[in-house]
Write a structure and sequence with these properties.
Strand content of chain A: 15-25%
Distance between the termini of chain B: 75 Å
Structural class of chain A: alpha+beta
Strand order of the largest sheet of chain A: 13-15-20-17-18
Shape of chain B: globular
Low-confidence stretches of chain A: none
Number of domains of chain B: 3
Helix content of chain B: 40-55%
Strand order of the largest sheet of chain B: 11-12-17-14-15
Oligomer: heterodimer
Mean pLDDT of chain B: 93
Strand content of chain B: 15-25%
Radius of gyration of chain A: 32 Å
Number of strands of chain A: 32
Chain lengths: ~775, ~650
C-alpha cells in the first residue's frame, strides 16, 4: 500500500513540476490558454453542484439556450472527466476543483503506465521512466494547454493493455477484468475508444495471431467485445444527444499530425524554442492536436528497447500504426498538405485515415492527431524496455537523471499557460437581479466569447440565450444573428433578453458602436466586457432580415429572416453562374432548385410563420473549401441586387388543401403587379411525383372560361419533399374589366386525369382549388 | 536441342493461332490495328535496311526536312526494327515484319520454358508456363498496337534463369563466371526491344529477388547477382548513351491514362468470342475503348493454376510477391476504378485523388522516362506464367500427362484470346507513291493534317514507297516539327512559304481531316486538281510561287493559352502586343520558341506589350498561358481560370 502511494505521490510531484505554476494558482487560475476549453469545462463542473443545490435536473442544463434549455446527458458519457471534479467542486472553489482533477489525472496516467510495465516484468525504475514518458508526452501537455481535461484521462488504457496481455492465461475473471478495463478507457472521452483502445486491441490481437496463440487471441476478442457491449449499453442514452449535437466540421487535415511532428519539440520549450526554427513551421497553429515529439532521451531508450527486447517490437507496431493514422487525411510537411502534379492532374497525398474517416460514425472523428495518444503509450513501453535493458548499476541515480532529462525534453510550455479565474464583481452581482430573464453574450458566433459567457454564468447564474455543452451553441443562428445585427429592443424583449454582455476583445468596435446607438450607455464596462441593458421597446418590429445586397455563394450561404406575424417575404436577386445547380432551402428543407446561367434571376416567395426563419442557398456540388491551384477557380454563384420584401397575411392561415397521391397545398397567395398575376404556392408531397404529374394554375373568367394558364411538371420529387413556386401568368392585353378566379390542381399526363381533391377549406368542384381572385378595372 | 526445337515450334504454332488469320496474309496485311504503330516501325525497319544496303546515307534528312532527326535511337533498341530489316532482305517488308513478330513470340515462350526448367519445374509445367507467357493478354494488346519492340521479352526470362543459377548449389568459379556473363548479356539485351523493358520487367522481378537475397542474408549470391547486373549495366551503357543521343522522341505525359485499375487483371477482353458475348460491363469500363494497353487479364485457367502453384509449391510464393509488386506499380500514380479518369474525392475540403507509390517513383531519375505504368503488367504476365507452371507441375502427373497438358493449353489459349480475329490492316501502298520515287525534283513532301499523329505514322509508311524526305515525321510518339512551320504552311498553303520550306508535294490524308474535307477543298482552290487521289489520299503538287514570301502570322487559341505563329522573311526587333482577357488577376507566362521570356500577373483589360529579343528570319512561335498552367480540375465545381489575349500580334 505504501509503495503505490509513494509512487503516486512522486508522479503527482512531477505533474506539479511540469504544470508549474499551476500548483501555486490552484484557486486563482484555470489551466490552459484563454481560447481553450478550460472555462467551458469549469461551467459544466459547476452545473452539477448548481443542479443539486437548486433541484434542477443534472441531466439537463435548463439555464442555457433560454428558454428551452439543452440536453446535458452527454456529459454523463464521460464520468472520468467530470465526476471527480464534480465532487471536488462541492467542497473546493471551482478553479481549484478543476485544476486538482487535472493534476491527479496526470499522476494517475504515469502511475498506471508504471503498473503496466511492472506487470510485464520490467524493473522498478524502468516502470518509473516509462510512466514519466507517458505522463509528460508532449501531446498530453498540449491538450492540457487547451483545457482538454477529458482527453487527459489516459490511465485506463495501460490498465486495459495489462489486462489484455494477461489473457495469455485463461480465466473468466481475467476476461471480466479486461472487459471492464476496456469500458473504462471510454469513460474519460468516448472517442478514445477509436483513437487508442481500438488500435491497441488490434495490435495486441495481431501479435497473438502472429505467435499463433489462437486461444489468447480469442479471449482478447471476447473481452474487447464484452467491454464494447457494456460501454455501448452505458452510452446508449447519450448517443442520440451526442449525435444530435455533433458537428461534422472537418478537421482530418487541419487537426492531423505533420510528417515531421515526431521530431518537432514545442516551440514554447525554453531551450528548443530558442534553438530551433522548424518546429514552429511544423506544428504551426496546431500545437494541441499535432504534437507528437518523441524526444531525444525517450526516443533513444525506445530504440534500445526495440533493439534489445523482442517484446518491445509489438509496441513498435502500435507506434507505427498510431503515427500513420495520426497523419490524418492528407500527408502534411511543414503544416502544409503535400501537393503534386502528374500527367495534368493535381493531387494531394491521401492517407488511410482520409478514406477511413468517410466511414459512417468515423466521420465525426475530426482530430486524427489524437491517435498519437497510442504513440505515447507505445513509446513509453518501448522506452521502458530500453531503460530495463540499460539501467543496471546505480539504477536510482541514472533513472532520476533520465527522468529529469525526459521531463525537460518534453516540456511543452514553460510556464504552463493559465487563464485568470477571477470574475468581475459586477457580473457576480447580477445574481441578485431576479428580474433578469436571459443574458445574451455577443459576438455570439465567437467561440471564445461563448466559452467566456459560460464561465461568467457560474457567477451571475442568469439564463443564457445561447450556451453550449460542446463546440457551439445549438440555438438557431437566425435568431442570434438578427438580434446581434439589429440589437432592436423590441426583438430583444421578445426573445427574453434583459442583459447583453459584449466581449470587447472579440469586437472590432462595430458591435460596441451599435450597442451604444441602440441600447444607450453600458451599465458596466471594463477592458474586457461591457454590459448593456436594453431599453423598453417603443414599437414592435414587424420584419427583419440579415441580407447583404451582393454575395458570392461558393458552397452554402444563409439569409436570416424574422417576422412578427405570418406572411410572405419575396426574395429576389440577379444571379450569375457557370450553369450551376442552386438549391434553396427554408429551415433546412429544400423548396426550390434551378440551374443558374450567366444572367438569370432568382425569385422565391417565402412563406413565414411568426418567428425566425433561415433561407439557405446551396450550390450542388459545393465548391471545395480549398482550390488547389491558382490556375483553377470555383464555379461560384454571384448574387447582386438581392432584396426581400415582406407582406403580412391579412387573414389567418387556412388548413391545407389535399389531393390524392399525397399532394397538398399548405400556403398560397395571389398577387398582381402590372400585367401579370402571380400565384405563390407552397406544396408538400407525401409520395413521390414525376415528370408526368402536371401542376396547373388557371386564370378563369366569371363564366369559367380559360384566360391564362400554366401547366407544368415540377419534376421528379421524392416523397416527404416540399416545393415552393411563384407561377406568373401574363394577363392578355385585351382582357376586359371584371373579376377573375385563379385555380390550381394536378393531373396525370398523358391520361389527362385530374388528381382527386380530398380536402379543402372551401367548397370546390372539378378537383380544382380556388386560390384567389382578382378584380380588373380597365 | 531437339526438344528445344519442338518446344519452339509448339509456341510458334500457338502464336500463329493467336494471331489468326495473320499467317495466311503474311505479305498482304500488317499485324496491328489501323491506329497502331505498325507503319511507323515498318518505316524504321525499311530505313535500317536501306542504310545497311547502302542505298541511303545514315544521316540523310528523310525526316523533319531539311534538318533531319538523329536516328541513333533505332540502333540503341535493335530488336525493335533490325529483325524485320534483316528479314526484308529476303522477304517483302510486310511479310518480314509479321514473321519477325511471330518468331519473337515463339522465342518468348521458349525463354520462359527455359526459366521454368531452371526453377525445377517439369516438362508439362514448363510448357504451360511458356504458353502463358506467349499468350498473356497484355502482350496481345501490345501486338495489336504493333509494338513489336515491347513484346521482345525473351531476354528477361533468360536473365532470371541465369540469376537463379548464380544462387544455386556450390559450383565451380568457372561455372559461376559463365552464368554471370550470360546473365550480363541477357541483362543488356532486355532493353534491346525497348529500353523501358529494363524497368517494367526487371524492377518488380529482379528487385524482389534482391530483397529476398538480402532478407535471407545470402550475401554470396547477392554479390554474384549484383556483379552480373553491374556487368550487364556496363554492357548496356553504350546502347543507353546511343539512345539518349538520338532526338526525335517528343510528347510525353498520359501516365495516368496509361495506368491500370485493380480490376484489369480480372477483365477479359470484350473482343473475346465468349467473354465479349456475356455482356460484362466492367471490362469495357476498365479497358477503355479498345483492349490494348490496359489488358492484363490473368485468366481463369492460368489463374487457377497459379493459385494451385501458390498453395502447393512454397517456391511459388516468392513469385507472388513480385506479381503483387508489379500489379501495384501498374496502377500508376493515381488510383483509378475506371480507365478514363482517376478517382476523385474531397478530404476535409481538399479536392484530391488517391496517390500511389508510383507518384513518387516516377519522379526518380531513369524511372521518370516511363509514361505507361500499365506495362508493369508485363511482369505480372511473366510471374504468372511461372506460378501457373508450378501449379501444373503440382497437379499434372501420371500417364495422361500429355493429354491433360494439351487440354490445359487449349483452355488457356481460348481464355486468353484477346481479339478474334487479330486486328490487321492492308499492307498495300498505291502505285502512285512508288512512282514518286522516280521524281528527283521533289525535295520534300508535306503530309496534312500534320498535327494528327496518324497522319504522321501513315506518312512514314508512304515513305517506304516514295523514299522522299518528309517535312514532319518522327521516331516515336509525336513529330518534333516546329508548330509554327506546320501550322502556317497548313493554314495558308502559300506556295512561296511552301517553296521556302522545300515542300514540293502535299499529301492530304482524307481520313484524318477533321474539318470535313476543308483542307482538300482549300488545296483544290489554290493548287487545282490533285495529281493523284483515291479514297484515302489526295496528292497535290505545289505550283510555283508568284510573289516572294512575306511576313505571315496567325493566332491559335488552345485551352488556357493563346498561340501566335509567325514566319519572318527577315530578322528584326519585334514586340508582342494584345489585350488580356481574364476572370481575375492571373499568373501568366510568355514563351518564345518554347523558352520562357516573361512571367507576371495579368488582369482583365491589361494591355500587353512584350519586347522580344532579336528574331532571326524563319519560323517562330509564341504563346501566353496561365502560370501555373491549367490542370484537370479535381472537382466538378472547379474550372480552369480564363486567360486569353485578344488582338495578339507582332509589331
Amino acid at each position: 500500500m505504501r509503495r503505490p502511494l509513494t509512487d503516486f505521490g512522486l508522479f503527482l510531484l512531477i505533474a506539479l513540476i511540469i504544470t508549474y505554476p499551476l500548483g501555486f494558482e490552484l484557486s486563482s487560475s484555470l489551466a490552459g490558454f484563454a481560447y481553450g476549453d478550460g472555462r467551458e469545462m469549469a461551467h459544466h463542473l459547476w452545473w452539477f453542484g448548481e443542479a443539486l443545490r437548486t433541484g434542477e435536473s443534472p441531466f439537463f442544463m435548463s439555464n442555457l439556450a433560454y428558454p428551452n434549455g439543452i440536453d446535458a446527458i452527454t456529459l454523463w458519457a464521460n464520468p472520468l472527466q467530470f465526476f471527480p471534479a464534480w465532487a471536488l467542486a462541492l467542497i473546493l472553489p471551482l478553479p481549484a476543483a478543476a485544476n486538482l482533477t487535472i493534476l491527479l489525472t496526470l499522476a494517475l496516467n504515469g502511475w498506471a503506465l508504471a503498473l503496466l510495465c511492472r506487470g510485464l516484468g520490467m524493473g522498478f525504475w524502468a516502470g518509473w521512466i516509462a510512466g514519466v514518458v507517458f505522463m509528460c508526452f508532449p501531446l498530453m501537455q498540449a491538450h492540457l494547454g487547451v483545457g482538454h481535461a477529458g482527453l487527459l484521462v489516459q490511465y485506463p488504457v495501460p490498465l486495459y493493455a495489462l489486462a489484455l496481455l494477461r489473457l495469455s492465461r485463461s480465466g473468466v475473471g481475467r476476461i471480466g477484468i479486461a472487459a471492464a478495463a476496456f469500458a473504462l478507457t471510454g469513460l474519460g472521452h468516448t472517442l478514445q475508444i477509436i483513437y487508442v483502445t481500438a488500435p491497441l486491441t488490434l495490435v495486441i490481437g495481431a501479435a497473438a495471431l502472429w505467435r499463433r496463440a489462437w486461444s489468447t487471441a480469442a479471449r482478447q476478442v471476447i473481452a474487447a467485445g464484452i467491454g464494447a457491449a457494456a460501454l455501448a449499453v452505458y452510452l446508449l442514452p447519450t448517443f442520440s444527444a451526442a449525435f444530435g449535437s455533433a458537428y461534422d466540421d472537418g478537421g482530418v487535415v487541419r487537426y492531423s499530425a505533420d510528417l515531421l511532428a515526431f521530431a518537432s519539440p514545442s516551440f514554447f520549450h525554453p531551450l528548443w524554442g530558442a534553438l530551433l526554427d522548424y518546429p514552429r513551421r511544423v506544428l504551426g497553429v496546431n500545437l494541441d492536436e499535432g504534437a507528437a515529439y518523441v524526444g531525444v532521451i525517450a526516443g533513444a531508450l525506445a530504440l534500445i528497447g526495440v533493439w534489445r527486447r523482442r517484446e518491445a517490437r509489438m509496441w513498435l507496431g502500435l507506434a507505427l500504426l498510431a503515427y500513420v493514422l495520426s497523419l490524418g487525411g492528407l500527408l502534411k510537411i511543414l503544416d502544409t498538405p503535400v501537393q503534386f502534379t502528374t500527367d495534368g492532374y493535381i493531387s494531394y497525398v491521401a492517407l488511410p485515415w482520409g478514406i477511413l474517416a468517410e466511414l459512417p460514425g468515423l466521420s465525426l472523428l475530426r482530430a486524427p492527431g489524437r491517435f498519437n495518444f497510442g504513440l505515447a503509450l507505445a513509446l513509453a513501453m518501448m522506452a521502458g524496455y530500453g531503460a530495463d535493458a540499460v539501467v543496471r548499476r546505480r539504477g536510482a541515480l541514472v533513472s532520476l537523471i533520465l527522468i529529469g532529462l525526459i521531463a525537460f525534453d518534453y516540456q511543452t510550455f514553460f510556464p504552463l499557460p493559465t487563464t485568470p479565474a477571477a470574475i468581475p464583481p459586477a457580473i457576480a452581482a447580477l445574481e441578485q437581479r431576479t428580474d433578469m430573464r436571459a443574458v445574451f453574450g455577443i459576438p455570439w458566433d465567437n467561440l471564445i466569447a461563448a466559452k467566456t459567457d459560460l464561465y461568467l454564468h457560474t457567477a451571475h447564474r442568469r439564463p443564457l440565450l445561447a450556451g453550449q455543452v460542446t463546440r457551439r451553441t445549438p440555438v438557431a443562428p437566425a435568431m442570434l444573428t438578427i438580434l446581434q445585427d439589429t440589437l432592436d429592443p423590441a426583438l430583444l424583449d421578445a426573445a427574453g433578453v434583459d442583459l447583453i454582455i459584449l466581449h470587447k476583445q472579440h469586437d472590432d468596435g462595430t458591435l460596441y458602436a451599435r450597442a451604444l446607438d441602440r441600447l444607450g450607455a453600458p451599465t458596466y464596462e471594463d477592458d474586457a466586457l461591457a454590459l448593456f441593458e436594453p431599453p423598453e421597446p417603443d414599437a414592435p418590429r414587424l420584419f427583419a432580415a440579415a441580407l447583404t445586397e451582393s454575395l458570392a455563394v461558393t458552397a452554402r450561404s444563409e439569409v436570416y429572416l424574422y417576422a412578427a406575424q405570418p406572411g410572405w417575404a419575396l426574395f429576389e436577386a440577379d444571379a450569375s453562374a457557370d450553369r450551376r445547380r442552386v438549391r434553396l432551402l427554408i429551415d433546412g428543407d429544400a423548396v426550390h432548385g434551378q440551374i443558374v446561367g450567366e444572367a438569370d434571376r432568382l425569385r422565391l416567395p417565402i412563406p413565414l410563420e411568426a418567428g425566425y426563419t433561415t433561407l439557405s442557398m446551396a450550390l450542388s456540388p459545393p465548391c471545395p473549401a480549398v482550390i488547389p491551384s491558382a490556375a483553377l477557380t470555383c464555379r461560384d454563384l454571384r448574387l447582386t441586387s438581392a432584396a426581400l420584401t415582406f407582406t403580412a397575411d391579412e387573414t389567418p392561415p387556412s388548413p391545407p388543401v389535399i389531393w390524392e397521391r399525397g399532394v397538398s397545398l399548405v400556403r398560397w397567395r395571389v398577387t398582381q403587379g402590372g400585367e401579370t398575376v402571380s400565384a405563390w404556392l407552397d406544396w408538400r408531397f407525401d409520395s413521390a411525383v414525376d415528370e408526368n404529374d402536371i401542376r396547373f394554375v388557371h386564370l378563369l373568367d366569371e363564366s369559367g372560361g380559360l384566360i391564362a394558364q400554366s401547366d407544368a411538371p415540377l419534376g421528379r420529387i421524392a416523397g416527404g419533399s416540399r416545393r415552393i413556386e411563384a407561377v406568373d401568368l401574363a394577363l392578355p392585353a385585351d382582357l376586359a374589366s371584371g373579376t377573375y378566379t385563379l385555380v390550381t390542381g394536378w393531373y396525370r399526363y398523358p391520361e389527362i386525369v385530374r388528381f382527386r381533391l380530398t380536402a379543402a377549406p372551401t367548397e370546390t368542384a372539378n378537383d380544382v382549388f380556388r386560390i384567389g381572385a382578382l378584380t380588373l378595372t380597365r | 536441342m531437339r526438344q528445344g526445337i519442338g518446344v519452339f515450334i509448339f509456341y510458334l504454332g500457338a502464336a500463329v493461332v493467336m494471331t489468326f488469320p495473320l499467317a495466311l496474309q503474311l505479305d498482304s496485311r500488317l499485324l496491328g490495328h489501323a491506329f497502331s504503330d505498325t507503319t511507323e516501325y515498318l518505316r524504321h525497319s525499311w530505313w535500317m535496311a536501306e542504310v545497311l544496303r547502302g542505298r541511303i546515307a545514315a544521316d540523310a534528312p528523310l525526316l523533319l526536312y531539311p534538318d533531319g532527326i538523329d536516328s541513333a535511337l533505332l540502333w540503341a533498341i535493335p530488336l525493335q526494327s533490325l529483325p524485320t530489316a534483316l528479314l526484308s532482305f529476303i522477304l517483302p517488308l510486310p511479310a518480314a515484319f509479321n514473321l519477325a513478330a511471330l518468331l519473337t513470340l515463339a522465342l518468348n515462350g521458349l525463354a520462359l520454358y527455359a526459366l521454368a526448367r531452371t526453377l525445377g519445374i517439369g516438362g508439362s509445367g514448363a510448357l504451360i508456363a511458356g504458353l502463358v507467357f506467349v499468350l498473356y493478354p497484355a502482350f496481345q494488346g501490345q501486338l495489336a498496337l504493333g509494338h513489336v519492340g515491347l513484346v521482345t521479352l525473351y531476354p528477361a526470362p533468360l536473365l532470371l534463369a541465369a540469376l537463379m543459377r548464380l544462387r544455386g548449389a556450390p559450383r565451380s568459379r568457372a561455372a559461376q563466371g559463365r552464368d554471370l556473363l550470360l546473365a550480363a548479356v541477357w541483362m543488356m539485351m532486355v532493353g534491346w526491344g525497348s529500353a523501358l523493358l529494363w524497368l517494367y520487367l526487371l524492377l518488380p522481378t529482379v528487385g524482389v529477388w534482391l530483397v529476398r537475397l538480402i532478407g535471407r542474408r545470402e550475401w554470396g549470391a547477392l554479390g554474384w547477382t549484383l556483379g552480373a547486373l553491374a556487368v550487364g549495366a556496363a554492357l548496356a551503357l553504350p546502347f543507353v548513351l546511343l539512345g539518349l543521343r538520338g532526338a526525335g522522341v517528343s510528347g510525353g505525359g498520359m501516365s495516368v491514362f496509361f495506368s491500370a485499375t485493380p480490376l484489369n487483371i480480372i477483365a477479359p477482353s470484350f473482343s473475346h468470342p465468349l467473354w465479349g458475348s456475356l455482356g460484362l460491363d466492367y471490362p469495357r469500363r476498365v479497358l477503355g475503348i479498345d483492349p490494348f494497353e490496359g489488358t492484363a487479364y490473368v485468366g481463369v485457367a492460368a489463374g487457377v493454376l497459379a493459385l494451385i502453384g501458390l498453395i502447393r509449391r512454397r517456391a511459388a510464393r516468392f513469385w507472388l510477391m513480385a506479381a503483387a509488386g508489379a500489379w501495384g506499380l501498374s496502377w500508376g500514380a493515381l488510383f483509378k476504378l475506371e480507365e478514363t479518369a482517376p478517382m476523385a474525392l474531397v478530404i476535409d475540403g481538399y479536392p484530391t485523388h488517391l496517390a500511389l507509390p508510383w507518384a513518387l517513383l516516377e519522379r526518380l531519375p531513369i524511372l521518370s522516362i516511363s509514361r505507361t505504368p500499365v506495362r508493369f503488367s508485363f511482369a505480372v504476365g511473366l510471374v504468372l506464367a511461372v506460378m501457373a507452371g508450378c501449379g501444373v507441375d503440382a497437379v499434372v502427373q501420371g500417364r495422361r500427362r500429355a493429354l491433360v497438358t494439351l487440354i490445359l493449353a487449349a483452355l488457356i489459349a481460348f481464355d486468353y484470346q484477346t481479339f478474334f480475329p487479330m486486328p490487321t490492316r492492308p499492307a498495300a501502298i498505291p502505285a502512285a507513291f512508288y512512282a514518286l520515287a522516280e521524281r528527283p525534283d521533289i525535295r520534300a513532301v508535306f503530309n496534312v493534317p500534320w498535327e494528327h499523329p496518324l497522319t504522321d505514322k501513315e506518312g512514314l509508311y508512304l515513305q517506304t514507297a516514295h523514299g522522299k524526305p518528309m517535312i514532319a515525321g518522327h521516331l516515336a510518339r509525336n513529330t518534333p516539327l516546329n508548330p509554327a512551320k506546320g501550322w502556317l504552311m497548313q493554314e495558308t498553303f502559300d506556295p512561296a512559304l511552301l517553296d521556302a520550306a522545300g515542300v514540293d508535294l502535299i499529301i492530304v490524308h482524307r481520313e484524318w481531316d477533321y474539318s470535313g474535307g476543308g483542307l482538300e477543298a482549300r488545296l483544290r482552290e489554290r493548287f487545282g486538281a490533285p495529281a493523284f487521289a483515291d479514297a484515302r489520299f489526295a496528292v497535290f503538287e505545289r505550283p510555283d510561287p508568284t510573289q516572294p514570301v512575306a511576313l505571315i502570322s496567325g493566332v491559335h487559341r488552345h485551352a488556357d493559352s493563346t498561340w501566335l505563329f509567325a514566319y519572318l522573311p527577315e530578322g528584326g526587333a519585334f514586340a508582342l502586343v494584345g489585350t488580356a482577357r481574364t476572370d481575375g488577376a492571373r499568373g501568366a507566362q510568355a514563351r518564345l520558341n518554347d523558352q520562357p521570356i516573361w512571367r507576371g500577373q495579368l488582369s482583365d483589360g491589361d494591355p500587353l506589350a512584350l519586347p522580344l529579343p532579336p528574331l532571326a528570319a524563319g519560323f517562330h512561335f509564341f504563346n501566353i498561358t496561365l502560370d501555373p498552367p491549367c490542370l484537370v480540375p479535381p472537382h466538378e465545381a472547379l474550372r480552369c481560370a480564363t486567360l486569353r489575349i485578344e488582338g495578339m500580334e507582332l509589331r
